[in-house]
Amino acid sequence: MNFRYKGILPSQAKKLIVYIFLIFAFFSVFFISANLYFFNISLDLHIERVASIQSQLDISSIMQTKFQSTLNIFYELKDSKNIDEANLNKGRLNKFINDFNKVASVLENGGVFDYLVPLSFNNKIEFRDRIRYKKRFSKEFDIQLKGIKPLISRIELLIEQFYQLKIESLESSEKLPFDSFFKNLNNTFIELEESINHLYFEAKGNLDSENKDFYDSENFIKNFNIVSFFIILFLTALFIFISFRKVLHIIYEKESVKRLNDKLLKAVNWASCSIIITDQSGNIEYVNHAFEKNSGYLAENVLGKRPSILKSGHHKSSFYEDLWDTISKGKIWNSVICNKRADSTLFREKVSIIPIIKEDNSIDGYIGIKDDITDVLDLISKFEDSKAMEMIFDKAPIGIMLISMDKKIIKMNNEAALILKYDSLEEAERSMYGKLCFENFCSATKDSCPIINLKKKSVILEEKLMWTKDRSLTPVLKSVIPIKYNSKNILLEMFVDIKSIKTVEMKERKLSKAKTNLLNNIIYEVEIFMDEVIEKVAALENKKENTHKNNLLTSIENSKSNLLNFINTTVGFLDFEIEKTKVKEHSIELDSLIFSIVKQFKVPAMKKSLELLVDISYNIFNCYICDSIIIANILMNLIDNAIKFTKSGQVVTKVSLIDSKDDSEVLKFSIEDSGIGITSENRDKVFEEFIQLDENNKENSKGSGLGTTIAKNLTELIGGSIELLSPNPNLYISKDPGSVFSFKLKLKKDKVNKEITKNPIHLENLSVLIIDANQFSIEILYNLLSNHYTVSAEINPKNIDNYFHKIKDLIIVDVNSLEKSFSKLQEFKKIVPTIKIVLIGLDLTNITSSMEAIIDLKLKKPIMKNYLIDGISNLFPDKVFFE
């Protein structure tokens, strides 16, 4: 805390220091008194313990004296000369033994013991003394005491026996054997003497220890009191220091708050807007300088009065009732009020009244913040006085509206009122006058005004939507320009209703759709007709062979296919151009879709002896949500184009995985061919409408020239882009360069409808021989096998004989290679009867019965993964393992 206090200590600090000293004195006195009190208690306990131990010591001393007397009397009994003397000594012994028992009882249980103390050597003068003893001794002392009582009892018994023997001896005048008996009794006396001495010295040691402990405790208490005093003194000083700094900090904070309040007061006093503060009853407590300037009233003239002194009579009583009803509920009230100055002139103010809410949710007063908007009225009056502006407003055949730079509606013309569906200009002005344009006229948001917020210079002939009286949106063609009028910057908005134009466009669109429907109906009828022709042609084919007839029938079939293809592509193009195709997504299985598409081109491929191959990456999700019709149209146009321009070799449809996420995958679709290719100068023309790049070839020039155009348009419609690569980099050996058309699509995964199937995942040690002249077909086949089986494969061996001892399980042979290798396969089948032979090909109908005999399974190209896996698994059921 960077604070330096100069001058005399404030009264708060002085009082605090006095209070702290008083507290210190109180606690010091209290602490010393408490220590004295507890010391006195400790002293009393010490005195009591010393008295008890002293009594214990005295009693032990008495016991020593009694013991000595008892021992002396016993010797006198031993030396008694007659029975009377023996009886006298026996009585004296009994008295001393009783005293022993009393002393032992007092030591054991506590109590009072009276005894005679001799004052002369002849024991003739004695006085009675009393010892009070409260039992306070150690466990060791207690153990010694408990050992004395049995000794006393034993001595008492032995004395009684000795006495009886002594009497018998005196009566009979015979000497009895006392030696062993006396020795036993003497030993008991020695034990008793040792126990009594131990009690005495134990008591004496306890007394010394108690005195030492007391003096040590007394010194400790004295030292503790001194240390405690200084600790309390230090803590009190520390508390005084901290409290003093706290007081100084509070004083500094008060000074800071005072300075801040002074700043806030100055800011409020000299704010450009009028500020009024009232109590909960509405009596004015404060006004700033802007209020004095705007209203003409001095502060001293309005304090204690109500704001109604500004009342102009312009508003109805319900207006003020709504005001008080709103703020009385603790809500903020906002509106525009027409007030009257001190000189009786009117002025308009935009007012916000804010309730001041206390902690108990009661209202403590109100704050009124008011902006003078009289200048806006002056601007309006100046426009109303301008004849040129009036002429523009009245004569212009378009809607015109004036907007202030704070986005408030100033004025509009009659045409604007009609466009916005108001019955009259007066109704429109009453409803929209002084209101914000973005809430009542323009559909733009608060902070998106092109001129004010986006800093555009102007808006020229842009289509916009405007709010109408019934809160519906109507289309307009709008222009907005900023102008300066009477030294004020405003926006001039001009707009024309284009709803009728939009209606005409809609009708034209519907008309075009109707034309398309009509064309579809025509196509449908043509297709029915062509199907009937084909049926008749088929009937002719069943008749006897005739070369000319067959050529004629083939020509008819080709013409029909070309005609249908031309009609389909033309309609697809017209449908795309007239009204953009709508994307309709649904769940599909991609592999099934692609194989169904490729199989449609089986006939034209067979006529050219082309291989139709499909290569789908094994790690795709396969089940997606997309528009299968659009994807099918793209692939069909590209495959058709590839077959058309490929003389020999193959057309491969590939699908590979580019990227995979939890909910989607990016796939690459490719159509690869071994056709004539496309030169670099013609690549840009490939996707143009009605363009045939190989017009010299009559067969290739058949068609609409729209296939690649439709594929490109449909790909872009679903968010992709089509690419062309020529020559084909994946060709092994080919006369022509070939081409690759590819496109990428992001497809959503369909996790709900994805089927969970159990396919064989392992078939160990499957030895396979693949015989196929097409390298592409071999690669696809090998990949399908290796993804599901552990295989050792041999591909296109020159001499099959070398593999008789290697191949044990499976031979896959293409139909085009079957004739050359048939004899070897037949021989191989005889040698190894368990081997399985699978025949693959596009057309499997033209094989002999002998060939049929050695075939275990036939699969048509393109080979679907599930058919291949299920077929081979059925051939080897014992080796299949499922998940």
Question: How would you explain this protein's 3D organization?
Answer:
It is a single chain. The protein is α+β, with helices and mostly antiparallel strands. The chain folds into six domains: 204 residues, IpaD-like (Up-down Bundle); 99 residues, PAS domain (Beta-Lactamase); 121 residues, Beta-Lactamase; 49 residues; 170 residues, Histidine kinase-like ATPase, C-terminal domain (Heat Shock Protein 90), CATH 3.30.565; 123 residues, Response regulator (Rossmann fold, 3-Layer(aba) Sandwich), CATH 3.40.50. The chain is 51% helix and 20% strand. The protein has 22 helices and 26 strands. Strands 13, 14, 15, 16, 17, 18 and 19 form a seven-stranded mixed beta sheet that branches. A five-stranded antiparallel beta sheet has the order 4-3-7-6-5, sandwiched between helices. The chain has a five-stranded antiparallel beta sheet with strand order 9-8-12-11-10. A hairpin with a 4-residue loop joins strand 8 and strand 9. The chain is flat, with a radius of gyration of 63 Å. The two termini are 75 Å apart.
Output the radius of gyration.
Answer: 63 Å
Dominant shape: flat
CATH architecture annotation name of the largest domain: Up-down Bundle
**Helix share of residues?**
40-55%
Helix/strand structural class: alpha+beta
Q: Main sheet?
A: 7 strands, mixed
Tally of DSSP helical segments: 22
Q: Approximately what portion of the residues adopt beta-strand conformation?
A: 15-25%
Strand segment tally:
26
Mean pLDDT: 76
Distance between the termini: 75 Å
What is the CATH topology descriptor of the largest domain? IpaD-like
As residue ranges, the low-confidence spans are: 1-8, 698-703
> How many distinct domains?
6
Top CATH class of the largest domain: Mainly Alpha
